[in-house]
Amino acid sequence: MDNNLIDEIRKSVNIVDVISNYLPLSKKGKNYFGVCPFHDDHSPSMSVSEEKQIYTCFSCGASGNVFKFIQDYENVSFLEAVKKCADQSGISFSYGKEKRNNKNQDLLDIYEFASKLYQNNLHSSLGKEAREYLKSRSLDEDVIKEFQIGLALNEATMLADTLKKKYDDATLLKSGLISEGEYNIYDTYRNRIMFPLYDLSGNIVGYNGRIYNNNNINDSKYINSRETAIFKKGELLFNYHRAKEECRNYKFVIIVEGQIDAIRCYQAGYKNVVASLGTAITKEHAMLLRKLSNNIILCFDGDKAGEKATNSAIEELSKLGIEPKVVRLEDNLDPDEYILKYGASRFSEKINNPFNMMEYKEILLKRNIDLNNTKDLAEYTNLMIKEISKIEDEVLKEISINKLASETKLDIKFIKSKLEKPKEIKIEKINNKIKYSKYEKSEQGLIYYMLKSEKVIKIYEKKITHMPTDRYRKLAFKIDCFYKEKGYIDLADFLTYIHDDEESSGAVSEILRLDLKEDFDEEAILDYLNNIKRYNDKNLSNQYKKELKEEVSLEKKIELAKKALAYKIRSENNE
Predict the structure, then answer these.
(1) Which of 259, 339, 469, 574 is the most exposed place for a label (fewest CB within 10 A)?
(2) CA 9/CA 72 separation, integer angstroms
(3) What are phi and psi of 29, to 5 degrees?
(4) Is residue 548 within 8 Å of residue 459, measured between CB atoms?
């Protein structure tokens, strides 16, 4: 890699502009603030500095430069993040295939091989019946290819026999593609159309296997992958890796329940769709959805179970301050069935005219309510007031109040007087929870100003021979190396320099959250140096005392005692 080119690419984009493409930022003073996408944040706790070209969350501690933000937000590699910035600036940047270092690489490789085998089966002469089934389901060739749909033949050990040549049985069983019998291992999926499941980066990590003929009529309609080291339903959204780009164009994301629903929507032109794979929306799902867009449309099945899933999703998204829109499908149909029955254009009408949160809740609350009955009307009004209290959008809140007043013939002032006051959310800094010794604080302070000033780096080079704490010692050394190599210090460039060192990057994040003055004074730096020297002297004195106890030679004992005393006196003189 050409590091100078990478630095040039970073400087070619403005971190404020880049992050603004992902989430809203508002300017307060010198910096910009937004809701942090990396934790369960309800109020703007992430600061973005245009001057320093870095971001820092004062709640969860996430920090870095523009490359780091894209990496973590989009779940991509460092070089992919660099490439995205280069593309924005029109700078030519390419790289070879990255060396993958994943502890579960064997499992990913097994799924990659299985995918090729299944796809080959589908397009072979033995896959004719399965292809005809897919055609009868109106899945076209482009979609079959795009979603890598395949076929497991009706052979007990076809995949197992091939994989055994390279992997041991224990590894194969961990994949979930292979099961264990009384005498041998065998293929988990047989005589099924195979629909891949992907992780956030687009790697195949699981399968849904569907029956398509009468050969296994007594079996379950679907066999779904069990959870493995690489497949966790509660942490993945189907089609996420494709939808993340599309959502920027559409400015919204559709979430459906099932994989087939998502594929059908995709074929109908809505590529900004993800699926929860039939599970309830989790906190992790909600945070992933927020990364895609704050404009979320829930389009679950039209039956009672779909309504329950919708309400559950609303509750989970509300915890992140998101008010989704809702599409409800008539005739108890799921999106796949609805598009096949009524067509893509009618489905589009639904997507283009979703219910907002209050409209949807109003529909639910009005069911089985007689508004001409005084008791029912009072119950409905109280429930609506409770829901209106939760609205954060002031315009929507005002519209809802006026609508309720008109509907119930109640005075607007009365309704407003009954609204619950919003709870104040306080940001608690992580630093307040961690207790540091005065020596650690001195190391942190020195490094904090080393990241800002060449002068402090030079003082470090002259005065400090040893930093007591391992991670700070390593970080200070790297700052010094960067300065000697580049001839300058720039925090955003330094973060690129250490991008593959998690320990040093974490230490920088820790230090950036310190409540220290922007500019240093030499007296403070001198105080840091004295504290660090004092710690080192105490350490050396204790070390010599320990050696003294173990030494047998009288001559060496005297020498060690002198050294221990000398460092003790030096340490006390610095108190």
Answers:
(1) 574
(2) 18
(3) 70, -135
(4) no
Whole-angstrom CA distances from 471 to 164, 443, 468, 505, 516 are: 43, 10, 9, 10, 20
- The residues with which 152 forms a beta bridge, in sequence order, are 192
H or E, element range at 85: helix 78-89
The CATH number given to 235-355 is 3.40.1360.10
Bridge partners (DSSP) listed for residue 185: 180
Tens of pLDDT, residues 274-283 = 999 878 999 9
Burial label, 129 (beta-carbon count in 10 A; 0-12, 13-18, 19+): exposed
In terms of CATH architecture, what is 3-89? Alpha-Beta Complex (3.90)
- List, for residues 227-284, the tens digit of each pLDDT value: 999 999 899 999 999 998 898 888 899 999 999 999 999 999 999 999 998 789 999 9
Rounded CA-CA distance 16/305 in Å is 42
Beta-sheet strand order (sheet of 54-57): 26-28, 31-34, 46-49, 54-57, 63-64
Euclidean distance between CA atoms 370 and 202, whole angstroms: 51
CATH 3.30.70.270 is right for the domain spanning 105-231? no
Q: Are 25 and 16 in contact (CB under 8 A)?
A: yes
Per the document, the length of the chain is: 575
Map tokens 């891949």 to a residue: 196
Give the count of alpha carbons within 13 A of 502, CB side only. 1
* 418, burial (CB in 10 Å: exposed 0-12, middle 13-18, buried 19+): middle
CA 445 from chain centre, in angstroms, equals 31
Residue 380's φ and ψ, nearest 5 degrees, are: -60, -45
Q: Is 160 left (phi over 0), alpha (psi -120 to 50) or beta?
A: alpha
Q: 522-550 and 554-573 helices cross at what angle (nearest 10)?
A: 160
The token pair at 30 is 């010198």
Predicted model pTM: 0.74
